[in-house]
Amino acid sequence: MKRRVTKAIFPVAGLGTRFLPATKSIPKEIMTLVDRPLIQYAIDEARAAGIKEFIFVTSRGKGALEDYFDHAPELEASLRKKGKDELLEVLQNTNMDSGAIAYIRQHRALGLGHAVWCARRLIANEPFAVILPDDVIAAETPCLEQMVEAYQETGGCMVAAMEVPPEAASSYGVLDVKEDLGSMVSIKGMVEKPAPGTAPSNLAVIGRYILTPKVLQNLNRIRSGAGGEIQLTDAIAEEIRNDRDVFGFRFRGERFDCGSKAGFLQATVSFGLAREELRDEFAQYLREMIALPNAAQ
Ligand code: G1P
After folding, report:
1. Range of the structural domain that residue 29 is part of
2. Measured from the CB, is residue 233 less than 6 Å from ligand 1?
3. Which of 44, 8, 14, 41 is nearest to 259 (CA)?
4. Residue 293 maps to a domain
5. Has residue 116 been placed in a domain?
6. Model confidence over 138-189: pLDDT tens digits?
7. Of 139, 98, 106, which Cα lies nearest the Cα of 10?
8. Is the pTM of this model over 0.85?
9. Which of 71, 79, 105, 288 is most buried, most CB within 10 Å of its CB?
10. Is the Cβ atom of 130 under 6 angstroms away from ligand 1?
11. Whose CA is nearest to atom 9 of ligand 1?
12. 244 C-alpha vs ligand 1 centroid, how far in Å?
């Protein structure tokens, strides 16, 4: 029997303070990588993985996100009239079906675990995905699709995982590996943002998850953890303590941390170079920049 995952939660309530002043008036998920907002990459990845219901956990000041997914009849009519069919298609791909998208407010910034818990009634009793739009992953087969495929074999909970340098481990949820099976690892523990030097491995959680509804029940009971926040990592680790399977999945692809300025810039360069219509001009510019002594100054 196929294990179906048709719902995904997108936690988008964060204030995005690292990108002030831009995020004073626009949600960080609307910030643009080449010509598409970050959230569009997350939605496209979810669609490719077979997700049919998109649940956004938002907060005050995120109205632009709701507008972004709405239909834009005037704009569409004007493009149609001008015969701009390609643009029309680009635009129509951003439209979401009526009833496919839901917005839930997280009223207080209590952490990622709390944000996911806010969507519990819409998830009810099914496995579900969580996508953190800050983590943008360039991959031939989109990351969540890879995971849904692997999940057919495993069931349980699955988190995307990636090796990080030891000094970076304290910025992530980190896996305590029971058995390394190659692209998959079985896990005997998980720690959110371990103190420097205490990480159980250098295998970090990246923002893609397939979770059982049990994790939502665990979140009912979980108290605040690292950074005083209710952590999703702790609710998943609880599954291991209850003798249920949790796997880390080493995805094939390149991950960009678009929650940081340096990561966002790297993603911009990489996605820019990947675009056929930009590649030559952009690559030429980068070569010139690098050739110039002290170009960065
Ligand atoms: C969140 C998770 C963390 C994970 C990270 C991946 O942390 O809590 O476990 O490793 O995303 O990006 P945040 O980056 O929101 O602090």
Report:
1. 7-259
2. yes
3. 14
4. no
5. yes
6. 999 999 999 999 999 999 999 999 999 999 999 999 999 999 999 999 999 9
7. 106
8. yes
9. 79
10. no
11. 173
12. 22
